[in-house]
TrEMBL record, chain A:
InterPro entries: GAF-like_dom_sf, HATPase_C_sf, HATPase_dom, His_kinase_dom, HisK_dim/P_dom, HisK_dim/P_sf, HisKA_7TM, Sig_transdc_His_kin-like_C. Coiled coil: none annotated. Keywords: Membrane, Phosphoprotein, Transmembrane, Transmembrane helix. This is histidine kinase. It catalyses: ATP + protein L-histidine = ADP + protein N-phospho-L-histidine. Residues 474-695 form the Histidine kinase domain. GO terms for molecular function: phosphorelay sensor kinase activity. It comes from Candidatus Harrisonbacteria bacterium RIFCSPLOWO2_01_FULL_44_18. It is an enzyme of class 2 (transferase). PROSITE patterns: HIS_KIN (PS50109).
TrEMBL record, chain B:
PANTHER family: RESPONSE REGULATORY DOMAIN-CONTAINING PROTEIN, STRESS RESPONSE REGULATOR PROTEIN 1. It comes from the Bacteria. It comes from Candidatus Harrisonbacteria bacterium RIFCSPLOWO2_01_FULL_44_18. Coiled coil: none annotated. Residues 2-118 form the Response regulatory domain. SUPFAM superfamilies: CheY-like. The modification 4-aspartylphosphate is found at D51. GO terms for biological process: phosphorelay signal transduction system. Keywords: Phosphoprotein. CDD domains: REC_OmpR. This is Response regulatory domain-containing protein.
Length: 695, 124
């Protein structure tokens, strides 16, 4: 009987321990789990003191002491199980702290009274099976209230919750209730039925084990939340127990046998038990304590202690939760700052190796654009590798990194295309990037590609949509105006009798309008081609002088009537320029037309063309200067926009789409050239320059 | 019957002027937004035919000015423009224009008839 008793208690003890560990490992922050562990601890102690109270042949006083301890520890079970019933299975305590305090005090009061001589006054004797018989004192009432009543209350709470719940919670509560019912039945069976009907108290010592069954039910209900996850928790709990047992065993072997055999010292049992317990406790708290301390020192020394997987999933979540480029960049950069402690970071968005926008934090983004475009042009950035400052060999690039405080560059690609670049600065602590940091940023860069591409496309879509609306409104008006002129002119010619002079006016106007309409249509279609990036260049040697001459013939009437003076100064070296003839003609026509139309009467227009060499490349630079209406500060930034015409320009020439410079610039860029201008202001003339490569 | 035509396109103005004069209207004209209001206030016509895209002030601005001035606010205004989008039409009508005619969509005679009909119904 003794052996069975001992073994069953050991099994019960270990089972409770495993359950407690499994539950706290699963989630150490959930109130339900914490309360369950408290519950388990109480029953662990209960098992121990219960066993001790039933050791045969001990003095009545000892038995009484242990029984008092049993009552004391079980006093706490009532409040604990009630709190658990209220909270289960939620992670947050639903009972106000005031009530928790009251229940705690009740438990304490009951425990205190249990330890006093007034709950059980003495042990009067033993039963046939060596079960001690205590005699109850006056304070037994407190125990009766705090323990059985609270258990009853818990049962009622659980039933009410069960009725009002659904789904997973309902099944979890079912397990809890089943556990209690089984527990209760078992207790009744062993305590009352066996004693009164079968007249034996032999099973009374085994009553505590029924609570192990209850614990199993509750633990199952808690752990089965994600059905398949039970095994890892239990596996970890079991391995933890083995770990503790091994440590305790090693320690006790050395501690117990060492002194005895090596030094001939004998130690008292309490010392041995005490120090083994301390060792076990130290082993148990080692890991959580270590974690806490490293977290704290991490904060102190700016060490980023992040979980790479968790951070990556956080970043992935950001990228999949928004399509707005601004929001996405901001959140990504903020997360990198917060978790990896990277104080400066920026994302550069690329289109065809050109930087189209920069979103940064900690960097002055305007300063970054041109130096970084230089790096991109040098093709240092290849698709798959991160570039770290410490690995650089090219001094010029190193200088750029140093000047702008860049530590590393991570290309973000989709397929073969570089769509963005992540640049990062120094970490808050000033230390170098760790391997973890590099790996994280690398993986992030490789995963961010698609999300960023989508956001950029969406941004473009918005821009395109706006452009389309503007396009439609400008075009429809600009095309309708000459058309209504033609229509009404023809109606007049048809309906009214008029003298030849008047007829000629209407006919001339209609003719001019038709020509104008065709030109506008050509420009519109060209602009559409440019939008779709369908500009093709076929280079042939073009005679600049001839082009300008042809142009002044075309505008000869206007030049004569305004008495404009046009001077040419074209170097022989650039008399022939390799270019697409049609497109170069258009460029010359547009710039010359502007100069002619916006010049005042008697104004001078000077045209120069010369060769320039820079960076081993030869270019032809052509300049057209006029003394016309000029360009103001506020108009300057819009000159290259499609459909832009300044008010002054509109007054000078009311009908124009404003596509001329937009098209000219696109054509020049297609040749790999540049277009720029200078003007001192209103009515101070303007100088337009463009370059074309000669090689 | 007095009418003021605000139109910056020379040829269109010529056609409108001739046709209205033929229909026995006294025609005054303005070729930009800045002088439009002054001309209208001076002549106080029975009808204004107003283009929207004008050099200087736009037709919308002129319309607003007219409706704010006590003397001119009752003069009916017909907008004659090539801006054809719904939002422009809505805006003009909301600002108090009587009607909105898109030039390219109507022969000149129809335009004259519409204006005449408006004036006649107003004077009743």
């Amino acid at each position: 009987m003794n052996t069975i008793f001992l073994i069953s208690h050991i099994i019960g003890f270990v089972t409770l321990l495993i359950l407690g560990l499994a539950v706290i490992i699963r989630n150490s922050k959930s109130a339900t789990n914490i309360l369950f562990v408290v519950f388990v601890l109480e029953f662990l102690i209960y098992l121990v003191v219960n066993y001790l109270s039933l050791i045969p042949n001990q003095s009545l006083d000892m038995a009484l002491t242990w029984i008092r301890w049993v009552m004391a520890i079980t006093s706490f079970t009532g409040p604990t199980v009630l709190l658990l019933a209220y909270t289960f299975p939620r992670p947050v305590l639903t009972v106000p702290l005031g009530w928790v305090a009251v229940l705690g005090l009740l438990g304490l009061a009951s425990a205190a009274s249990a330890l006093s001589p007034y709950l059980f006054t003495e042990v009067v004797g033993y039963t046939a099976n060596n079960v001690p018989l205590p005699s109850p004192g006056p304070l037994i009432a407190i125990y009766a209230i705090s323990v059985p009543m609270l258990w009853l209350a818990s049962f009622i709470v659980l039933i009410r919750k069960y009725r009002g719940s659904s789904g997973l919670e309902k099944s979890q509560l079912a397990y809890f209730l089943s556990g209690i019912i089984i527990n209760l039945s078992y207790l009744l069976l062993l305590g009352i039925v066996a004693v009164n009907i079968f007249k034996t108290s032999a099973f009374i010592p085994f009553m505590p084990l029924s609570f192990v069954a209850l614990a199993i039910f509750i633990a199952y209900a808690i752990l089965r939340h994600r059905f398949l996850d039970i095994q890892p928790s239990i596996a970890r709990a079991v391995s933890y127990i083995f770990f503790i047992v091994i440590i305790a065993a090693i320690y006790s072997v050395f501690f117990v046998f060492g002194p005895t055999f090596l030094f001939d010292i004998s130690l008292d049992l309490p010392i041995i038990i005490g120090s083994i317990s301390l060792t076990v406790i130290a082993a148990l708290i080692f890991q959580p304590l270590y974690k806490r301390i490293t977290k704290w020192t991490g904060k102190l020394f700016f060490q980023s202690l992040y979980d790479s997987e968790e951070l990556l999933s956080k970043l992935t979540h950001i990228m999949s939760s928004t399509i707005d480029l601004n929001v996405m960049s901001r959140q990504i950069l903020a997360t990198l700052d917060e978790e990896v402690k990277i104080t400066k970071a920026a994302i550069l968005f690329l289109d065809n190796h050109r930087i189209i926008s920069i979103k940064g934090s900690g960097y002055d983004v305007d300063l970054l654009k041109s130096p970084l475009e230089k790096i991109i042009h040098r093709e240092i950035i290849s698709s798959y590798h991160a570039i770290l400052f410490q690995d650089l060999r090219d001094e010029a690039v190193k200088e750029i990194f140093r000047k702008y405080e860049i530590e590393a560059i991570f290309p973000i690609t989709v397929g073969q295309e570089d769509i963005a670049i992540l640049i990062t600065g120094a970490k808050a602590s000033g230390s170098m990037y760790s391997l973890q940091d590099l790996k994280l940023l690398d993986v992030f860069a490789s995963e961010a590609g698609l999300a960023i591409k989508n956001a950029v496309l969406y941004e473009n879509l918005k821009i395109v949509s706006e452009a389309k609306s503007k396009f439609i409104s400008v075009v429809s008006h600009q095309l309708r105006t000459p058309l209504s002129g033609i229509r009404w002119s023809l109606e007049m010619l048809n309906q009214e009798a008029m003298d030849p002079k008047e007829s000629k006016t209407f006919l001339d106007n209609s003719y001019q309008s038709v020509i104008f309409l065709s030109e506008q249509l050509d420009d519109i279609l060209t602009a559409l081609d440019i939008y779709d990036k369908r500009v093709f260049i076929k280079k042939d040697p073009c005679n600049l002088f001839q082009l300008f001459k042809d142009n002044s013939e075309e505008f000869s009437t206007l030049i004569k009537s305004k008495k404009l003076i046009i001077k040419y100064n074209i170097d022989d070296v650039v008399s022939l320029v390799p270019a697409d003839h049609g497109k170069l003609k258009k460029i010359v026509n547009t710039l010359m037309k502007n100069a002619i139309v916006y010049s005042p009467n008697g104004g001078r227009i000077s045209i120069t063309a010369r060769k320039e060499t820079s960076n081993d490349r030869n270019r032809a630079v052509i300049s057209i200067s006029d003394e016309g209406i000029g360009i103001t500060e506020s108009e300057r930034e819009h000159i290259f926009e499609e459909f832009f015409r300044s008010d002054k320009a509109r007054t000078a020439l009311p009908n124009g789409l404003g596509l001329g410079i937009f098209i000219a610039q696109a054509f020049i860029k297609a040749h790999d050239g540049d277009l720029w201008f200078y003007s001192e202001g209103r009515n101070k003339g303007a100088d337009f320059h463009f370059s074309l490569p000669l090689d | 019957m007095k009418i003021v035509i605000v139109e910056d396109e020379e040829i269109l103005l010529k056609v409108l002027k001739e046709k209205f004069e033929k229909a026995n209207f006294d025609v005054w004209s303005a070729i930009n937004g800045d002088e439009a209001f002054a001309v209208i206030k001076k002549t106080l016509p029975d009808m204004v035919v107003l283009d929207l895209i004008l050099p200087g002030k736009s037709g919308f601005e002129v319309l607003q000015e007219l409706k704010l001035d006590a003397e001119t606010k009752l003069i009916p205004v017909i907008v004659l423009s090539n801006l054809g989008q719904d939002e422009d039409i809505k805006k003009a009508l909301q600002m108090g224009a009587e009607d909105y005619i898109v030039k390219t969509q109507h022969p000149i005679n129809e335009v004259i008839e519409k204006v005449k009909a408006r004036i006649l119904s107003k004077s009743r």
